[in-house]
Structures are given as structure tokens and as C-alpha cells.
Automatic annotation (TrEMBL):
<comment type="similarity">
    <text>Belongs to the ABC transporter superfamily.</text>
</comment>
<dbReference type="InterPro" id="IPR017871">
    <property type="entry name" value="ABC_transporter-like_CS"/>
</dbReference>
<keyword id="KW-0547">Nucleotide-binding</keyword>
<dbReference type="GO" id="GO:0016887">
    <property type="term" value="F:ATP hydrolysis activity"/>
</dbReference>
<feature type="domain" description="ABC transporter">
    <location>
        <begin position="3"/>
        <end position="231"/>
    </location>
</feature>
<dbReference type="InterPro" id="IPR027417">
    <property type="entry name" value="P-loop_NTPase"/>
</dbReference>
<dbReference type="InterPro" id="IPR003439">
    <property type="entry name" value="ABC_transporter-like_ATP-bd"/>
</dbReference>
<dbReference type="Pfam" id="PF00005">
    <property type="entry name" value="ABC_tran"/>
</dbReference>
<keyword id="KW-0813">Transport</keyword>
<protein>
    <submittedName>
        <fullName>Nitrate ABC transporter ATP-binding protein</fullName>
    </submittedName>
</protein>
<dbReference type="InterPro" id="IPR003593">
    <property type="entry name" value="AAA+_ATPase"/>
</dbReference>
<dbReference type="GO" id="GO:0005524">
    <property type="term" value="F:ATP binding"/>
</dbReference>
<keyword id="KW-0067">ATP-binding</keyword>
<dbReference type="InterPro" id="IPR050166">
    <property type="entry name" value="ABC_transporter_ATP-bind"/>
</dbReference>
Length: 257
């Protein structure tokens, strides 16, 4: 599914969060949004997902090419997992299917399918409080996949996890993108995640949030490995792009505190 972001600007009262963003995201493409704190990454993701109406501009969705059985073309994976504590793993996944006209057996088929895809089949009856952070985020991914989306919208999905779990899940995301050819928009502060997962990395500058540069990484996702020389070079190039503004944003936050 092709997404076209056309002349999108957004203002929250006094804050001009985004100005004139133009970007086309092709089917099967993973695009990372990076940039200093407050540059408008989450605002742009919310606008793409239809959770926030932009002050001006449009997001055009070509939904001719939706996957078979797609219930929601766009679906979110949240940083804080957003699981209901009183529902089991299977119950949390079922939640996103219950508003749709599916029989119980159709729901069950989808639940089993996404549990298998995320290696959660043995945990279907566990409750969130029994799971580690990494397992909770796997449930978040399984829940998103259950609607067979055309596009995954991911807002810092690894940032609440410890370093080892992050590495494990990063490998799993990389497998998922390589295997399914899923289109995704991935917001992150972490440049290593951006270079492991994205075909293109969009660096935003802040005040107002505009596109500074779009950086392409032409290595197939399945061939990328942690510490690979070419990826380290891409990461360095991205850091050079955003460094000065990241430092300025950091100082600003320190002054506020
Ligand atoms: N609901 C809101 N009301 C007012 N201002 C907001 C609101 N949400 C975000 N902002 C402001 O809009 C700007 C962009 O915020 P946004 O959260 O999109 O940036 P971000 O790049 O995702 O930041 P971070 O990396 O820190 O998560 C910031 O200056 C922020 O303070």
C-alpha cells in the first residue's frame, strides 16, 4: 500500500510542530523517522495513522493493494505495549478482532497464526503480568499483525526494553520485515535500529519540524548484521546529520527541568 504525505503541517497552539512535510512511502518499504526530541516524529506518525488531523495537508492512502483479509490498513505498535492486564495473551490479541464480523473460528485461526509468527504459542493463556518486557512487546506485535495490516506504525517499540532484549527483538523485527515485505513507519531515537531496519531514514529538524534529509540504505534487510561495517558508516552519517540539533534539544530539556 502506497502512502503519500502531501504538504502536511501541524500546529499545537503556540508550537509549530511540523511544516510542509512531503513524503511518499512505497509498498514494502520500511521508513524510519529520526531526529532530536520534539522534532515532530510522533506527531507525524499520529497524522499518518489518522489519530490526529493535520492543521493542513493530506495523507493519501492507495488502498487498492490491501493484503488479503486486511481488517485495518494501518495499525500501531506502542512503546508501552498497551496490553489489558485482565486479558490473557490470546485475549489481548482477540480484542482487535472483536469489532469485526469474524466468526469465533476465524478469530481463533488468526490468533493461532500470529502467536506462531511471534513465537508466543506456548504463552497464549498467560497474563501480561507474567511476561517479561520483551514478551509483552511480542504480544503487541502479534496483536498488530492479527488485523493483517498493510502498514505497521511503530512508535519507539524497543525503547522500554533492556539492552539484550532490544537486540533479540531487533533481529525478530528484521526477520519479520524481510519475510513479510511489510510496509512500516518506525519512529526511533536509536540510530542503530534505524540502520538495521529501514530502507530509508528520514531525518527531521525541529522548530518547526521539517525534513532535513532522506538517507537511503541499499543493503537488503535480511543481509544486515549487527556491527556490519557499512551499517556503522550509515549510522555515523545519520549522527552527523542530527548531532548539533540533538545536543541543542538535550540542553533545552536540561534547562526546563
Ligand atoms: N498535545 C500537545 N500539545 C501541545 N504541544 C504538543 C503536543 N504534543 C506534542 N507537542 C509539541 O510538539 C512538538 C513535537 O512533538 P512530538 O512529540 O511529535 O516530537 P517527537 O519528535 O516525537 O519528540 P520525542 O522524540 O521527544 O518523543 C514538541 O515541541 C512537543 O512539545
Amino acid at each position: 500500500m502506497r502512502l503519500t504525505i502531501k504538504n502536511v503541517s501541524h500546529r499545537y497552539d503556540q508550537v509549530e510542530a511540523l511544516r510542509d512535510i512531503n513524503l511518499a512511502i512505497e509498498p514494502g518499504e520500511v521508513v524510519a523517522l529520526i531526529g532530536p526530541s520534539g522534532c515532530g516524529k510522533s506527531t507525524l506518525l499520529s497524522i499518518i495513522g489518522g489519530m490526529l488531523a493535520p492543521s493542513s495537508g493530506d495523507v493519501l492512502i492507495d488502498d487498492q493493494a490491501k493484503p488479503e483479509g486486511c481488517l485495518n490498513p494501518l495499525t500501531y505498535v506502542f512503546q508501552d505495549f498497551a496490553l489489558l492486564p485482565w486479558r490473557t495473551v490470546a485475549g489481548n490479541i482477540s480484542l482487535v478482532l472483536e469489532d469485526h464480523p469474524l466468526s469465533k473460528s476465524e478469530r481463533d485461526v488468526r490468533i493461532e497464526e500470529v502467536l506462531a509468527q511471534t513465537n508466543l504459542s506456548d504463552f497464549r493463556d498467560a497474563y501480561p503480568k507474567q511476561l517479561s518486557g520483551g514478551m509483552k512487546q511480542r504480544v503487541g506485535i502479534a496483536r498488530a499483525l492479527a488485523v493483517r495490516p498493510a502498514v505497521l506504525l511503530m512508535d519507539e517499540p524497543l525503547s522500554a526494553l533492556d539492552a539484550q532484549t532490544r537486540i533479540l527483538l531487533l533481529d525478530e523485527f528484521s526477520d519479520l520485515f524481510a519475510r513479510t515485505g511489510m510496509t512500516a513507519v518506525y519512529v526511533t531515537h536509536n540510530l542503530n535500529e534505524a540502520v538495521r531496519l529501514a530502507h530509508r531514514v528520514v531525518a527531521l529538524r525541529r522548530r518547526p519540524g521539517t525534513i532535513k534529509e532522506i538517507h537511503s540504505i541499499d543493503i537488503p534487510i535480511q543481509d544486515r548484521r549487527e556491527g556490519m561495517h557499512e551499517l556503522v558508516s550509515h549510522e555515523q552519517a545519520l549522527w552527523n546529520l542530527i548531532r548539533d540539533e540533538a545536543i541543542a534539544a538535550d540542553k533545552e530539556l536540561e534547562n526546563v527541568a
